[in-house]
Design goal:
Layout: E1 21-28, E2 32-38, E3 42-47, E4 52-58
Antiparallel strand pairs: 1-2, 2-3, 3-4
Length: 65
Amino acid sequence: MAKKVRIENHIHCPDCGEILEVIGSLFIEDLGLVEIYKCLDSIFIYESWKGKIKKIYSYEKETKK
Protein backbone atom coordinates (compact mmCIF):
# COMPACT_ATOMS: atom_id res chain seq x y z
CA MET A 1 0.00 0.00 0.00
CA ALA A 2 1.30 3.46 -0.89
CA LYS A 3 2.24 5.86 1.87
CA LYS A 4 1.31 9.51 1.84
CA VAL A 5 4.43 11.66 1.83
CA ARG A 6 4.46 15.20 3.11
CA ILE A 7 6.31 17.55 0.78
CA GLU A 8 8.14 20.27 2.69
CA ASN A 9 9.55 22.33 -0.18
CA HIS A 10 6.74 23.14 -2.53
CA ILE A 11 5.61 26.31 -4.24
CA HIS A 12 2.02 27.49 -4.38
CA CYS A 13 0.42 29.21 -7.36
CA PRO A 14 0.16 32.94 -6.66
CA ASP A 15 -3.19 33.03 -8.52
CA CYS A 16 -5.16 30.05 -7.19
CA GLY A 17 -3.07 28.68 -4.30
CA GLU A 18 -2.64 25.15 -5.70
CA ILE A 19 0.73 23.40 -5.40
CA LEU A 20 2.69 23.90 -8.62
CA GLU A 21 3.97 20.87 -10.54
CA VAL A 22 7.57 20.89 -11.79
CA ILE A 23 7.75 20.28 -15.53
CA GLY A 24 11.43 20.96 -16.13
CA SER A 25 14.30 23.40 -15.99
CA LEU A 26 15.79 25.72 -18.54
CA PHE A 27 18.97 27.76 -18.91
CA ILE A 28 18.19 31.33 -19.96
CA GLU A 29 21.25 33.45 -20.70
CA ASP A 30 20.04 36.55 -18.83
CA LEU A 31 18.53 34.65 -15.89
CA GLY A 32 20.66 31.51 -15.56
CA LEU A 33 19.08 28.19 -14.62
CA VAL A 34 15.35 28.47 -13.85
CA GLU A 35 12.78 25.84 -12.91
CA ILE A 36 9.54 25.63 -14.89
CA TYR A 37 6.27 24.96 -13.07
CA LYS A 38 2.69 24.54 -14.22
CA CYS A 39 -0.67 25.06 -12.63
CA LEU A 40 -4.15 24.37 -13.97
CA ASP A 41 -4.10 27.29 -16.40
CA SER A 42 -0.66 28.94 -16.17
CA ILE A 43 3.06 28.29 -16.58
CA PHE A 44 5.62 29.89 -14.27
CA ILE A 45 9.39 30.16 -13.98
CA TYR A 46 11.04 30.18 -10.56
CA GLU A 47 14.33 31.95 -9.97
CA SER A 48 15.56 30.14 -6.85
CA TRP A 49 18.47 32.48 -6.15
CA LYS A 50 16.00 35.41 -6.03
CA GLY A 51 13.14 33.47 -4.48
CA LYS A 52 10.76 34.91 -7.08
CA ILE A 53 8.19 33.28 -9.31
CA LYS A 54 7.03 34.84 -12.59
CA LYS A 55 4.06 33.92 -14.77
CA ILE A 56 5.23 33.43 -18.34
CA TYR A 57 2.10 31.97 -19.94
CA SER A 58 -1.61 31.76 -19.17
CA TYR A 59 -4.12 29.63 -21.06
CA GLU A 60 -7.15 31.59 -22.17
CA LYS A 61 -10.36 29.98 -21.04
CA GLU A 62 -13.08 29.86 -23.63
CA THR A 63 -16.61 30.14 -22.33
CA LYS A 64 -19.74 29.59 -24.34
CA LYS A 65 -22.80 31.67 -23.54
